[in-house]
Design a protein that fits this description.
Elements (H helix, E strand, L loop, with lengths): L4 H28 L5 E6 L2 H9 L13 E7 L5 H11 E7 L18 E7 L15 E7 H14 L7 H22 L1 H5 L9 H16 L9 H14 L4 H13 L11 H12 L1 H9 L7 E3 L3 H8 L9 E3 H12 L9
Parallel strand pairs: 2-5, 6-7
Antiparallel strand pairs: 1-2, 3-4, 4-5
């Protein structure tokens, strides 16, 4: 594209300082955002800058408000307020589009772009003089992952490119409508889940809820993982492998706990306590599984040398089914030290 010298010069005048701004903003936002959020930024290209000027919508060509722009991508709409607070913490908001959460330019039948855009300046230190970077207005978009995915997948179909096509644009906005419905479902999932159509359960979910409720009643919160579903699935998996009912396992742990063992063994994880209680009260089921060829469930075990010693005495245990993590660690250390595993000199 032909770009005249004046526009090119105007672009270059803004580029250098906005490049410094990009570095500073990236440092601030990467340090403050939640780990699961995405942070993206860009400086407008020279051709895009020239085309934007030709739209006639730019108020200050020498200070284009989205010359530098960035995006915070958050889990879903419930996280947008948190992201907005983060932006407000480090920036002064000059204006926003749409101007309020409850307002939109779209009619009900429209599904055009209207994600939250903030036009901001970096906050200067209270005791420090204002810097040139603090005077630059830049754009911050806050999007959900679904909004971001739609933009990435369809941007060139809708906004840019060498041709236009009604059908492609129609499909793109149909997808946006479906994703908006998905956003509503995610945001209101608890309320929707209570509807008569969805307020049911199956056997798998019933068992998972049973195990999670038991875990939460038996162990203190700080002794449990964040991912309670995975822990419950692991306990159900070993119950299935050993052909035990989950109620049997719960009862075994309860007996041990009442005797000062079980859940009162704070050095062991809940899963390790389950294995120990199974050995104590359903030893035949554990031995039968460990000694038979069938079954793919592998029990990785650590930090309970007493139980490891007892299992080692069982006749015919398949080494692929009951693995002492301490042995793996020792072999890894030998390998790292240049010693062939199993030989110590």
């Amino acid at each position: 594209m032909k770009i005249n010298k004046t526009i090119r010069s105007l672009y270059q005048e803004q580029y250098a300082i906005n490049k410094l701004l990009e570095t500073r903003v990236k440092e601030i936002f990467e340090g403050k955002k939640k780990a699961q959020w995405f942070f993206l930024c860009r400086i407008k290209g020279e051709e895009s800058f020239a085309l934007k000027l030709e739209t006639g919508r730019v108020h200050q060509p020498e200070a284009m408000e989205d010359f530098f722009a960035c995006t915070l991508v958050v889990e879903n709409r419930t996280s947008i307020a948190e992201a907005l607070n983060l932006v407000s913490e480090v920036c002064d908001i000059v204006k926003r589009r749409p101007p309020a959460d409850e307002r939109t330019h779209k009619s009900p039948e429209e599904f055009s772009f209207d994600d939250l855009r903030l036009y901001v300046k970096l906050k200067s230190g209270e005791d420090l003089p204002s810097r040139p970077l603090d005077e630059i207005v830049f754009e911050v978009q806050i999007k959900t992952f679904l909004q971001h995915a739609w933009g990435v997948a369809t941007h060139d179909l809708v906004y840019k490119g060498k041709s236009v096509h009604w059908g492609r644009a129609r499909v793109a906005f149909q997808i946006k409508a479906m994703l908006e419905h998905a956003e509503i479902s995610v945001e209101r999932v608890d309320a929707i889940a209570e509807s008569s159509l969805l307020n049911v359960t199956d056997e798998k979910i019933r068992k998972l809820k049973t195990v999670i409720d038991w875990l939460q009643k038996t162990w203190a919160e700080e002794l449990l993982p964040e991912d309670m579903v995975r822990l419950a699935e692991n306990i159900l998996s070993i119950a299935h492998a050993l052909k035990l009912d989950i109620e049997e396992i719960i009862n075994c742990v309860g007996i041990d706990t009442a005797q000062g063992q079980g859940a009162q063994l704070y050095d062991l994880t809940p899963f390790a306590v389950v294995i120990r209680s199974i050995y104590n009260h359903r030893k035949s089921s554990l031995e039968r599984y460990l000694c038979n060829e069938g079954g793919k469930f592998r029990i990785f075990f650590a930090d309970d040398p007493e139980l490891l010693g007892k299992v080692a005495l069982l006749n015919g245990v398949k080494p692929s089914k009951f693995i002492a993590l301490g042995d793996i660690e020792a072999k890894s250390q030998q390998t790292a030290n240049g010693v062939e595993p199993g030989r110590l000199g």
